[in-house]
Each structure stands twice: as structure tokens, then as C-alpha cells.
């Protein structure tokens, strides 16, 4: 049995190959799974995909026609997979239901602190031996209000760090997290959270109900000097509306590790090409915006846990077992 793994980063390859020893042979590709690359999987019963894979109906049908019977996605989110079509085709689909929440929570704070204290601007200046402080003034976060949108495992980890900063804690979620309440978090409506928070961090999954959770109206409801961080999914934020607010001079800083049109851009080297995404091109020109390449999860601990869970998912499939990671069959 040989597994074909798409979208494997150079750092991940030795970890994946070592983890699959004794379970199955694995072939690692750096190309991402989409309509153009799906034919490569012909003859492989098991395919492993990365977070930005295109697993829409057309790709799933191409995989099934080539003999694929299982898709093991190496991520928690699965908004990129047409689960209904996968079920109709008789495909088994798994994901990684959880991994180190600290990887994402700590990176979200990295973005928040970087834009608050103008770290990127300062670094660029000092490389040119410009040591002026003009335009680098940040502000203390101690005593200010952190608004945590989504208080699951990652949101809770983010909240614990905010508590360490001595911040007032506001949360928004369908179900309150008792651990966050013990830290002093008050659960409020989304509108109140956005209106009162000095720092808003997003930690909810992307689904139909959360698409453009921060639309034009929600962004207008935020404080003019607020900090916004999104390390979850790009589609949570209406990027066009965000650009309009930034153009109006709003927000102290915006840290984005995800972007709603990142597929085909993130995880690729486009430095020698003309990028035709006008929205992203405009976004990265704002001096108070920091965009990174969907790397919040990318720690040794988290990646190791993701790979280990993927190997277990493959072993379960081969043994005819299901687990909490099995999406299809439900």
C-alpha cells in the first residue's frame, strides 16, 4: 500500500516519511491537490491533502475515477471538501480534529504584538541603520480589552495569554467555555464585543454561518484604534470591506495569517511573478497591516501531532475502523 501526499513542505517531508514507516509507503509531492494535479493520484487508494487543497466535486470525481478510496486531510478545517459528493462516491474522508492549540494562539499573539509595537517597520529601518523612533509608538495592552471570537481550544489558549497580560476579557461563542469564565471572561453579543474590544482575535471555523463574520457593518462597529488578528480562516473577514476601512485610516493594526483568496498563492513562491490579486496587493501596502503565509500552525509540536493523527487515520481506514477524525462516512 502506498499513500500519495500532496502539498508537503520541505520541513515536513522527513517527518511524514518516518511516521508512515511500518504502516504504508508514502510518496510526498510539493504540488497541491487541485483539478490540474488530481490525475497524478491515479492508482493510489489513499491520498493525503493539505489545508489549501481543492477537494470540490470535480476533483473528488477525478480521484474516485482514478481508484482513490480515502482522503486523509492534514488539517482541522474541511471547508474545502465537498463532503456530500465524497459520500456519494463512497470515499472515506478524514481530518485532524485537534493539534497543539498553543501553536496558533501564540502566533496570533505574535501578530498582535508585531503590529502594536511596529516591529516590522522598526526592523526594516534598522537594516538601513535608521534608528529613529518616529512612528513606532505602540501602547500597553495591560488593562485593555481583548475580544476573543470563538473560545474553543485555541481561543482558550489565546485567552490565557491575554489574562497573563492583565487584560479585560470578552468572549463570543455559541457555548461558553467554563475555563475561560474562570479566567474572568464575560460572554457578550458579537456587536458588544466588537464595540468594546481593543484587540479582536478570531478563532472560529469557516462555514456558511461564519463566512464574512466580519463584514462591512461589523468592521465599522469596531473601535477606530482597535487591533484585528485573524489566524483562523480568511473567509471570516470580508477583505474588500477591510481594505475600505484601512483606506479610511482606521485600526491601529491588522495581523492576518490567512486570506480568503489564498489558494494558489499561499505556500507558493510568487516573488518573480505579477500577482493579479488587486485586493491582496492593496492590503499589503498599508503600513499597519502584517500578512503572513498561513503559518500559525507550523511548529514542530503541532506538525508532529498532525502527521501522527494522519497516520492513525490511514491505519484506521486500512483496518476498517472509524474515529472522531472520520468525516465521511458520517
From TrEMBL:
Protein name: 2-hydroxyacid dehydrogenase
Taxonomic superkingdom: Bacteria
Pfam families found in the cross-reference section: 2-Hacid_dh, 2-Hacid_dh_C
InterPro entries (alphabetical): D-isomer_2_OHA_DH_cat_dom, D-isomer_DH_CS, D-isomer_DH_CS1, D-isomer_DH_NAD-bd, D-LDH-like, NAD(P)-bd_dom_sf
Domain annotation D-isomer specific 2-hydroxyacid dehydrogenase NAD-binding: ranges: 110-296
Family: Belongs to the D-isomer specific 2-hydroxyacid dehydrogenase family.
Keywords carried by this UniProt record: NAD, Oxidoreductase
Residue ranges of every copy of the D-isomer specific 2-hydroxyacid dehydrogenase catalytic domain listed in the record: 8-326
Amino acid at each position: 500500500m502506498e499513500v500519495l501526499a500532496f502539498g508537503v513542505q520541505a520541513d515536513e517531508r522527513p517527518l511524514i516519511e518516518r511516521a508512515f514507516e511500518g504502516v504504508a509507503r508514502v510518496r510526498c509531492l510539493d504540488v497541491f491537490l487541485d483539478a490540474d494535479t488530481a490525475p497524478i493520484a491515479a492508482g493510489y487508494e489513499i491520498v493525503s491533502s493539505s489545508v489549501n487543497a481543492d477537494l470540490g466535486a470535480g476533483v473528488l470525481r477525478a480521484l474516485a475515477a482514478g481508484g482513490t478510496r480515502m482522503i486523509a486531510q492534514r488539517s482541522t478545517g474541511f471547508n474545502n471538501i465537498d463532503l456530500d459528493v465524497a459520500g456519494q462516491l463512497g470515499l472515506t474522508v478524514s481530518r485532524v480534529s485537534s493539534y497543539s492549540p498553543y501553536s496558533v494562539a501564540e502566533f496570533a499573539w505574535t501578530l498582535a504584538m508585531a503590529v502594536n509595537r511596529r516591529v516590522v517597520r522598526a526592523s526594516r529601518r534598522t537594516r538601513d541603520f535608521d534608528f529613529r523612533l518616529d512612528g513606532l509608538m505602540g501602547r500597553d495592552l495591560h488593562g485593555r480589552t481583548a475580544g476573543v471570537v470563538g473560545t474553543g481550544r485555541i481561543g482558550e489558549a489565546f485567552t490565557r495569554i491575554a489574562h497573563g497580560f492583565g487584560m479585560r476579557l470578552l468572549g463570543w461563542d455559541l457555548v461558553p467555555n467554563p475555563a475561560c469564565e474562570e479566567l474572568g471572561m464575560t460572554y457578550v453579543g458579537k456587536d458588544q464585543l466588537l464595540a468594546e474590544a481593543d484587540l479582536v482575535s478570531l478563532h472560529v471555523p469557516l462555514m456558511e454561518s461564519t463566512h464574512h463574520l466580519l463584514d462591512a457593518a461589523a468592521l465599522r462597529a469596531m473601535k477606530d484604534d482597535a487591533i484585528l488578528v485573524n489566524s483562523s480562516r480568511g473567509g471570516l473577514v470580508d477583505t474588500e470591506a477591510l481594505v475600505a476601512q484601512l483606506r479610511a485610516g482606521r485600526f491601529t493594526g491588522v495581523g492576518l495569517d490567512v486570506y480568503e483568496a489564498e489558494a494558489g498563492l499561499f505556500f507558493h513562491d510568487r516573488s518573480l511573478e505579477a500577482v493579479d490579486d488587486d485586493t491582496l496587493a492593496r492590503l499589503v501596502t498599508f503600513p499597519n497591516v502584517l500578512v503572513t503565509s498561513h503559518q500559525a500552525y507550523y511548529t514542530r509540536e503541532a506538525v508532529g501531532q498532525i502527521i501522527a493523527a494522519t497516520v492513525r487515520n490511514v491505519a484506521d481506514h486500512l483496518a476498517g475502523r472509524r474515529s472522531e477524525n472520520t468525516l465521511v462516512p458520517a
